[in-house]
Design brief:
Layout: H1 2-15, E1 36-38, H2 45-51, H3 56-62, E2 76-78, H4 118-124, H5 142-145, E3 156-158, E4 167-170, E5 176-178, E6 183-189, E7 198-202, E8 207-212, E9 214-217, E10 224-225, E11 230-234, E12 243-250, E13 253-255
Antiparallel strand pairs: 1-2, 3-4, 4-12, 5-11, 6-7, 6-10, 7-8, 8-12, 9-11, 12-13
Length: 264
């Protein structure tokens, strides 16, 4: 009887979303000792950066990769240090300036007196270009202003702490998942272990957000989304329970999403 009562008590605790045990799944993988990574089929630079907790901008710089940051299967990506410029996995194309044939310069005196030489105007005219002012104080920092929308309506069942690099939000199969801010979908797939159907949105060069365990994905890679737009439905792909796992990373490093989301 005592065993039955203990089991019943454990079941009661597990039925409460607040105390339900949820496995930490959002661990950042350690960088291999070699400091290198071999790209698999259909992987993206964003996916690799997310896996190792790196800033995709820095990763692109280390590997001499320009926008739109494409990588190819079998290519070696340097997670530490810098790839040599002559790395055989990436062809570096250089462009030579076009050499135009010599032309005899135009003699100003041959131009009609009624017309002022264009060269003279350029040489003696002062063109004042007023720079466009950007008032930084009017651009809110989400870490400070807490203005981003919530990704789901459920309550938080796992906080940002320890191995958990985001928050888990309770829900039911089919509940809506929303983009917390405007941005571009840079990843949509199941290639990251433990995340299930995952969406990663790039908001700017500084911030990215991730939405995991979706049962249905409603956006495609490359698609531009608006703040509050429905992008997926909650599920349990890659998880032992129905929930939304949500992360925000700043320069590749996880930050507490509660600090960026608006107060409820």
């Amino acid at each position: 009887m005592q065993v039955i009562l203990i089991s019943a008590a454990l079941f009661a605790c597990a039925s409460d979303d607040t105390f339900a045990p949820v496995a930490d799944i959002a661990t950042i993988q350690p960088i291999p000792a070699s400091g290198k990574y071999a790209v698999s089929t259909r992987e993206s630079l964003y996916e690799i950066a997310w896996r190792y907790g790196l800033d995709y901008n820095e990763l692109a710089l280390r590997n001499h990769i320009s926008p739109p940051y494409r990588v190819y299967a079998g290519e070696t990506v340097y997670l530490r240090g810098y790839a040599p410029v002559s790395e055989p996995s990436r062809v570096v194309v250089t462009f030579q300036p076009e050499v135009k044939p010599y032309r005899k310069p135009i003699i100003i005196s041959t131009i009609k007196p009624a017309l002022k030489p264009a060269v003279k105007l350029v040489a003696h005219s002062k063109v004042v270009v007023k720079p466009k002012l950007v008032v930084l104080k009017n651009i809110p920092d989400p870490i400070l202003s807490k203005t981003w929308a919530w990704p789901a309506h459920g309550k938080v069942i796992t906080k940002f702490a320890g191995l958990n690099k985001g928050i888990n939000i309770a829900g039911r199969i089919g509940d809506s998942v929303y983009a917390v801010n405007a941005g571009r979908v840079v990843y949509n797939g199941t290639g990251l272990r433990g995340y299930g159907n995952l969406i990663i949105i790039k908001h700017n060069s500084e911030f990215m957000s991730a939405y995991a365990h979706n049962s249905l994905v409603l956006v495609e890679e490359g698609e531009v989304v608006k703040r509050g737009q429905k992008i997926a439905e909650i599920g349990n792909s890659g998880s032992d329970r129905v929930m939304l796992h949500f992360e925000i990373r700043r320069y590749g490093k996880p930050v507490n999403p509660i600090n960026t989301l608006k107060s409820r």
